[in-house]
Amino acid sequence: MGLIDTYGRRINYLRLSVTDRCNMRCSYCMPEGGVEKLSHCEVLSYEDLLRIAREAVSAGIEKIRVTGGEPLVRKGILSFLQQLAALEGLKELVLTTNGLLLKQMAQGLRDAGVQRLNISLDSLQAETFSKITRGAGLAQVLEGIDEAERVGFPPHKINVVVMRGINDHEILDFVKLTLTRPYAVRFIEYMPTSGDADWRDLCVPGAEIRERIAAEYQIEDAPSSERSGPSKNFRVAGAAGSLGIITAMTGHFCDGCNRLRVTASGIAQSCLFAGNGVDLRPVLATGDDALLRKELQAIVAAKPGRHQLTEEGAEATPFAMSRVGG
């Protein structure tokens, strides 16, 4: 049957946040003073998160990405992932991580059934990395990436939020990673999630990123799978890996959006910039899973055609990415 919204888009991808906690404080993800943490009772239990996932898959979701905050900081995460991996009908289970805990948890993640990792890595220079993350260590992340490869994970996707004057000078350094290693590096346009007035100054348009790469290398288009998300993929000719650009701001991909988000507190969002979302906790409290599935179907049916952020005078309501799962 599948999940089809009113615009004819097939929604087959769920981003499921398991926590708002994070062991980094990235500048584009939360304000300098941090964010108020959810209380224990506000965070959904693993049982309820599994119910949401099960009904979403029954309704037509084929891919689940587990996110946070940083999902690896939540106790019991490996057992939960094992249960997710066992869901009948789920075709792809992936996890997004900042990599800080990856060295000690990579084997457990692989054994639990996680099929692939997306690693957030915004700089290859220790000083810049520390500045963006407000103090985290690059070496620890790189060790985690190496360990994940050692235990048998397929080539990682590496997500890079490009910010003018902060890390955009490293674009070609990330490209070089793909020349000899089969990474899929994704450059992401900076988005105004924190409500900063100067976000346009920080945003490096996807077209400019591609032009910078094309000025140094011969590039060619690369294929995308149905569940791969909004990245416009290409590669350097002859490279082992691939590149991609996610143009959330300058070339919105709303027409092909295939995703649904659920936060750790049970708020379902059909669009990252579509307001407050729908609280699933009341329907979860009924214990009626058929009703839960109908609620998810109704949320998909109400999914907006596109966000309005790039229109003249449009303003984003500030929010912390750590709360919504990226």
From TrEMBL:
Designated name of the protein: GTP 3',8-cyclase
GO-annotated molecular function: 4 iron, 4 sulfur cluster binding; cyclic pyranopterin monophosphate synthase activity; GTP 3',8'-cyclase activity; GTP binding; metal ion binding; S-adenosyl-L-methionine binding
Positions with a binding annotation for [4Fe-4S] cluster 1: 22, 26, 29
SMART domains linked: Elp3
Gene (UniProt): moaA_1
Record bears the keyword Plastid: no
Pathway: Cofactor biosynthesis; molybdopterin biosynthesis
EC numbers: 4.1.99.22
Keywords: 4Fe-4S, GTP-binding, Iron, Iron-sulfur, Lyase, Metal-binding, Molybdenum cofactor biosynthesis, Nucleotide-binding, S-adenosyl-L-methionine
